[in-house]
Design goal:
The protein has helices spanning 2-10, 18-45, 74-185, 210-218, 258-271, and strands at 234-240, 246-253, 285-290. Helices cover 59% and strands 7% of the residues.
Amino acid sequence: MHAHNDRDQFSPPRPPARLRAISLAVLVHVVLIGALTWGVNWKNSADQPAVEAELWAAVPQQAAPRAVEPPDTREADIAIERKKKRLEQEKKAREQQLEREKRERERKEDERRDRLEQEKKERLQKEKEKEQREKQLAEQKKAEQDKQKKLAEDKRKADEAAKRKADAEAKQLAEQREANLRRIQGLAGATGGENATGKDKDTRGPSGGYGGKVAAKVKPNIVYPDAISGNPRAEVEVRLSPDGTIVGKRLVQSSGNKAWDDAVLRALDKTETLPRDVDGRVPPSLTIGFRPQD
């Protein structure tokens, strides 16, 4: 479109209308003929030997402009094409730059998300480790408290057992002192012989049936399910309070079978008290023999 306008600017102007040109030509010829005729007539009548005449056209005529060849538009087309390619390349470069910037933003965003996720995992891991440590410390503290509590309970039980034992021994000693006082008070009427070594007023001991009474009370408490070869005898010395409470025991002769010995001792613990003799008394101590088949 621009090339066409350039060619119009350099093209010659359009000639006047055809009718106008013909009228001007006829007029010019008429004037010329008239001028020639007047000149001839003037020459014949004048005396002067020379005549000068100037002819002027009624309407001046101008030559048409020289035809100009249309300009070559190939270079302009090439320039336009180059400009078009350059614009396309610049557009493509901008698009590529925008794409690179977009990928870079996405990469940074991914890195940011990954970093936040990693930080979150590390924070949760630290919190979990902290909770585990606190739980372990709490468990250790509780275990220590339980241990101290058990030690205190064991000490309390041991103290109570020691107190009971001490009370029983003190009671036994008191009863023994009382018995000794009674024996001392009754020595004046003692009936023993000259060679007697006893301390009581009368010579006396458990009745013949007392051992059976003791065995009858203790044996039901002997628990020994295993079979025993032979009939071994375990002898146990038992110390008693005046009311028959067993305050001490000691194995004076083993049966040779530890399981049978332990069963007899457990039975005495379970029995706790022995019956009184026929005179209503309980000997302060006695040695009892136990056999599986008695």
